[in-house]
Write a structure and sequence with these properties.
2 copies of one chain form a homodimer.
Chain A (H helix, E strand, L loop, with lengths): L2 H21 L5 H12 L5 H11 L9 H19 L8 E2 L2 E2 L1 H4 L2 H20 L6 H15 L4 H11 L6 H27 L3 H28 L2 H4 L5 H4 L5 H5 L1 H21 L5 H12 L3
Antiparallel strand pairs in A: 1-2
Helix pairs in contact in A: 1-2, 1-4, 2-6, 3-4, 3-9, 4-6, 4-9, 7-9, 8-9, 9-10, 10-14, 10-15, 14-15
Chain lengths: ~290, ~290
């Protein structure tokens, strides 16, 4: 199976399961509609698919990974809803559709985000496919990755950084927290659930960290040289804002070199971990060379 | 020891532990300050103390209850921060101090709330005093009580209800979800951790449900006949708003009778459960007849 077929197959399976899970919440109509609106808005489902791929590196795919992957995507979706709010990034559109607060209102969007965040931990702890130790591992790691030492910390630093020019180190730190932590969780938790032993999880963790940075660097690159039609959003917006980006600090050539260096490092990390799952190697290329 | 001394002693112990727990988060300075600001803003610590009292009905108090109680207060605090936002209730003051978004800004307040919510689940799952089964129970029940079928559902219904006149049943439903669920969690989780068996937990659950309604009814009563100085806020604000309240629907006399009926029902539930912990009986009086 080609890599893109693999992704497509996993997306379809996961979308079906995710919608069913969120649909099960017995919530007031408007709250449920608001949560489902953003859950159904799509996206690449990168994090859940990475979790499944890491799982498959150690064990054939089964239902065990469904609830953790759904919880992860719920947390990612909550963060997008809150990030788009007028008080934060103030975005009216995401993936070509009105953002949650534009479709509903600010209050509903805040509550939909809160509901998805708390709901994610409910989904993990009520799963029939996980035993108690696994649930504790997943809640602890997901709360760590998404909470005040993880993604939320990254969002705080990102907001503060908008007004000043950042060093390369400061920018790496923001991305490692804001997007990197959930990507690390995806891969670590997938490997853990698949039965990886601790040294294997630590080795695959370096791969995950590189992948998060590759993803972000390519985001910055596409804002300079991307195709607006493929991206579905205007390019050059970073240039106009005061936001620090890799191309602004390093120049475009050095930024691309940096990305390629992380791509090599990610592949080496997999090799060192003796993880021979082709799909994980393919992800390096996919994220590093994507054009949308 | 008198009831008020009991409450004061527990408050002091708990405040010390809670601040230490939140202070341990390795978060960006501004995020940490914002979380600690609302955590330190005080309040009666009603929910954690109810949890401790329910625990003590079955076993002498010890450190086992500290992290669950802290997580509960973190969730309660996050809900106040988000509730006060301009997009929600738009309150500038709480307990005589500027609300979180007035002291910091809207974006920081959103993130502080998000951080406290995710952080609460981290506090439970990293506790050294709980085994895996207890952690799963606590995360599941807290996520249920605070999430899209619990407190967040209540907040959604509350917002929608502001614009129309509600039936008694609709108003009960909002309060059961918005404030009742966390109070139920406090008491159920305390009894569970203390070693109560399932039928005891179910019996004490009725006490908890009554307590939540007593709390809310007295809130409405105080807005009509309270002492502004003792309350620390102006009275009569419900009368001026379109908000549905018990006195508006039932009249003041019937409202007070309803409260007394729940107070008797709560005491009977304790008796039926054969829970002979005096402090739990005292709480009925305390919440039903409080003047602040």
């Amino acid at each position: 199976m080609t890599f893109l077929n693999y992704v497509k197959e996993k997306q379809e399976w996961f979308n079906y399961e995710l919608e069913a899970i969120v649909n099960e919440f017995n919530s007031p109509k408007r709250l449920k509609e608001s949560m489902l609106y953003s859950i159904k808005a799509g996206g690449k489902r990168l994090r859940p698919i990475l979790m499944m791929a890491a799982y498959e590196a150690f064990r054939p795919i089964d239902k065990k990974v469904v609830h953790p992957a759904a919880a992860l995507e719920m947390v990612h979706t909550y963060s997008l809803i809150h990030d788009d709010l007028p008080a934060m990034d103030n975005d009216d559109f995401r993936r070509g559709k009105p953002t949650n607060h534009k479709k509903f209102d600010d209050a509903t969007a805040i509550l939909a985000g809160d509901g998805l965040l708390a709901g994610a931990f409910h989904v993990i702890t009520t799963s029939n496919f996980l035993h108690a130790e696994e649930k504790v591992y997943l809640v602890r790691e997901l709360a760590q990755a998404s909470g005040p030492e993880g993604m939320v910390a990254g969002q705080m630093l990102d907001l503060e950084g908008e007004k000043k020019s950042l060093s390369l180190q400061e920018m790496d730190q923001i991305h490692l927290l804001k997007t990197g932590e959930l990507i690390r969780f995806a891969i670590r938790a997938g490997a853990y659930l698949g039965g990886a032993i601790p040294p294997q999880i630590e080795a695959i963790d370096e791969y995950a960290t590189c992948l998060g940075l590759i993803f972000q660097i390519q985001d910055d690159v596409l804002d300079v040289i991307g195709n607006e039609e493929k991206l579905g959003k205007p390019i050059g917006s970073d240039e106009q804002s005061e936001k620090s980006t890799y191309p602004k600090i390093l120049g475009l050539d050095e930024t691309i070199k940096k990305k390629e260096w992380y791509m090599e490092k990610a592949a080496l990390a997999l090799k060192t971990a003796k993880v021979n799952h082709e799909i994980l190697y393919d992800f390096i290329d996919y994220l590093g060379n994507r054009d949308y």
